[in-house]
Structure formats: structure tokens, C-alpha cells
Specification:
The chain is an alpha+beta fold and 360 residues long. The chain is built from 15 helices and eight strands. Bound molecules: iron/sulfur cluster (2 copies).
Length: 360
């Protein structure tokens, strides 16, 4: 089982560390969730076999990938502008890197060669645009921490898609966790990510990465290249003025604080109704989706029909269904909401605690 509860204190890992000890230590160090994926499984099931994101391409002797999840606190998703989420993203990534580094360092000191991969990186020998040496969302699924949603973000039952993940590669053999086989995403009948997406980049279990980048990476690498090309091509007398634009300020801010260069658009994360953080802090403020249009409703209708009729859907092919949840949606969000409401009532004193202590 992946580890999913907060744990405090504890000692550094020793030579005999097993899977349970490693996950417990990850939570002690500050991770919100921790799971383990087998490198052999990751090597056998690359997300896209044409461009394999596998541990063996990094180091063939890797046996296990320890996957950490850090949640993005929900409060920032309530803000009227995107800026607080962008800043929180940077803080969360910093914290996650520190936790992962500590865990890797402890394992290595205990005698097991171990290192951390960059959570957000691009391997240009595979593809241009954002395409890392490992796909952290697929690592998360293989480590039993969630499943992919309609917009192909990983959805954890606890925090929906409002998370970052990283992978720690170790030559220590650790018992892997089991994948979640039911679909965590509600699917076509929900489609709130589709409705909220400003550039309409959410596809049917897929994403138009270029479309998404126009909002999510306003000051990302490709925008920076295009800006430089425009400056080079401009007549000399205009160049000076071009350097004093909002564009250049955006790049500077992105380099300094990540703001604008990555994860600029939090809309599909903010409206996704999976996770107790959504029920507690976001449901009311994001009930209404202002970007919803009749055209998007028609798309949703088409998708519902295609799924019902069993039409071929690339994102749900036999290969891809592994990460979406081959059993389909079985009501995990409804169950979670029911339990959340029960606990709320219990806390407010409406229900006597004793009456529920033997629940499921
Ligand atoms: S991050 Fe924004 S632009 Fe990208 S898919 Fe989500 S809602 Fe659409
Ligand atoms: S918003 Fe709905 S359809 Fe989109 S990922 Fe979340 S649960 Fe799935």
C-alpha cells in the first residue's frame, strides 16, 4: 500500500530499509504521499513506446523508483488571479526537491546508490517541448498514488490533480505498490476540466500541449525563443524599445520565481472535484465555471456518446487504459464526498462519534 498519512519525527534510514520504512521516512520528511514503482515494470510499460521514458535509459541497474507527492495548498486556488498559485508552485517544488534529496541521501549513506530526477525537465533527444526523462504522472500511477484524468493530469484520491510529483531512483530492490485499477476521474459526465480550459486544450483523455502552453507557459522557453528571434530580426532602432516590454519582465520573473514560465494556468486543477481539499475549500468558489460555453457542452455530449458506444478513443486504447484505470469509474468521488460530509457532521457534533466508530 502507498503511504498516505502525515507522520512526524523519526530516524534516518538504515542499511536494512524496506519499502514500508522508506515510505514512512518520506512522510516524516514532509512528503504528502509516497509510493514505490518497480523499475522493471516502468521499463516494460513506457507511456509512449516510440519515445521511451524509462529508468533503464538513465541507469540500467536501477531497481526501484520511490515516488513522492507534494500537494499544492488549496487556498491559492481560491484567489481571483493565477499569481498566488504560480508562487505556491515554486514553493511546493522547492520543498519537494528538499524532501527527495534528503531521502536519496539517507539511502545512499545506508549503502544503496540513489539519486533524484528533476521533476520538471525536458529531454530534447526524445521530443521538443516538455517531455522529461521520466513521466512523473505515470510514475505516480505505477506507484499506486492515483490515475490519469480526462485532461491526463494524475488525480490522487486525496488532492485530485493539485499536486506535484518527483521520482527517486534507487538500486535498492523495494516491494512495489499496486496500481489503483478503478478510474479516479469521474470522466465524460463531469468534464469540468474541458469547460474551464481557456484555450480549449483538453481532449478526450488527452491534451493539446501547444494549446495548453499558450496559457500555462506564457513566459516559457518557446515564448522566450520566439521573442529573441523577433528582437534579432527587428531593425536596430526598434530593438531597444523591444527590450523594455512586459515580455522581458515576464522572462525575468519566470527565471527568478517560476511565475509565468511554468504552471501559469491553474484552471483545470482548480475546478476538478476530486479530493477532500476540493470538498473543503474549493467546491463553493468554483461551482460556477465562467469559461463554460454551449460549444464545449456539445463536445462533452459527443464524448459521452463516443464512450457509451464503445468507439475507439486513443487515450483509452488497450495500452493507455492501464494508467486511466481499466475498471472504469466506480464512484470513488461520490464515496469520498459522502465520507467527507459524515466526518464534517461528526466534527460539528451533529452525530455522536461512537455511533460511527465501526464504519467502513
Ligand atoms: S492548464 Fe489551463 S490551458 Fe492547460 S489544459 Fe489546464 S485549463 Fe487548459
Ligand atoms: S474535472 Fe472531472 S473530468 Fe476533469 S479530470 Fe477532474 S474529475 Fe476528471
Amino acid at each position: 500500500m502507498p503511504f498516505r498519512a502525515r507522520i512526524a519525527n523519526g530516524k534516518p534510514l538504515g542499511k536494512e530499509a524496506d519499502a514500508a520504512a522508506v515510505k514512512r521516512r518520506a512522510l516524516e520528511l514532509g512528503a504528502d504521499l509516497a509510493g514505490i514503482a518497480s523499475a522493471a515494470t516502468l521499463n516494460a510499460f513506457p507511456p509512449d513506446p516510440r519515445w521511451p521514458q524509462t529508468p533503464e535509459r538513465i541507469l540500467p541497474s536501477i531497481k526501484s523508483v520511490i515516488v513522492l507527492v507534494q500537494r499544492i495548498p488549496a487556498g491559492a486556488f481560491r484567489a481571483v488571479s493565477n499569481v498566488p498559485v504560480q508562487y505556491m508552485d515554486m514553493l511546493v517544488l522547492r520543498k519537494m526537491d528538499k524532501v527527495a534529496y534528503r531521502l536519496a541521501d539517507e539511502l545512499e549513506r545506508a549503502g544503496h546508490p540513489t539519486f533524484v530526477t528533476a521533476a520538471q525537465e525536458t529531454d530534447w533527444s526524445l521530443k521538443r517541448a516538455s517531455y522529461g526523462r521520466l513521466s512523473t504522472r505515470h510514475l505516480g500511477v505505477e506507484a499506486g498514488l492515483g490515475t490519469l484524468g480526462l485532461e491526463v493530469n494524475i488525480l490522487t484520491p486525496e488532492f485530485g490533480p493539485r499536486v506535484y510529483l518527483t521520482g527517486i531512483l534507487s538500486e535498492l530492490e523495494l516491494e512495489p505498490d499496486q496500481r489503483i485499477t478503478e478510474q479516479v476521474c469521474i470522466g465524460e459526465s463531469c468534464s469540468r476540466c474541458l469547460h474551464s480550459c481557456p484555450p480549449n486544450a483538453v481532449l478526450h483523455w488527452g491534451i493539446d500541449k501547444r494549446g495548453c502552453a499558450t496559457e500555462a507557459q506564457e513566459f516559457g522557453f518557446m515564448t522566450m525563443l520566439q521573442f529573441m528571434e523577433r528582437v534579432i530580426d527587428a531593425p536596430p532602432e526598434k530593438r531597444s524599445a523591444m527590450l523594455k516590454t512586459r515580455d522581458l519582465f515576464g522572462f525575468w520573473q519566470g527565471l527568478l520565481r517560476v511565475v509565468g514560465s511554468f504552471g501559469d494556468c491553474p484552471r483545470c486543477l482548480a475546478v476538478c472535484p476530486v479530493g477532500n481539499d476540493y470538498h473543503a475549500h474549493l467546491a463553493e468558489v468554483h461551482k460556477h465555471i465562467p469559461e463554460r460555453t454551449p460549444e464545449k457542452e456539445q463536445i462533452q455530449q459527443r464524448w459521452r456518446e463516443a464512450r457509451k458506444q464503445g468507439e475507439p478513443i486513443a487515450g483509452l486504447s488497450e495500452w493507455n487504459a492501464r494508467w486511466v484505470g481499466p475498471e472504469g469509474y466506480k464512484g470513488i468521488v461520490a464515496r469520498q464526498l459522502q465520507e467527507f460530509k459524515r466526518q464534517q457532521k461528526e466534527r460539528s457534533g451533529d452525530l455522536p462519534e461512537a455511533a460511527h466508530s465501526g464504519g467502513d
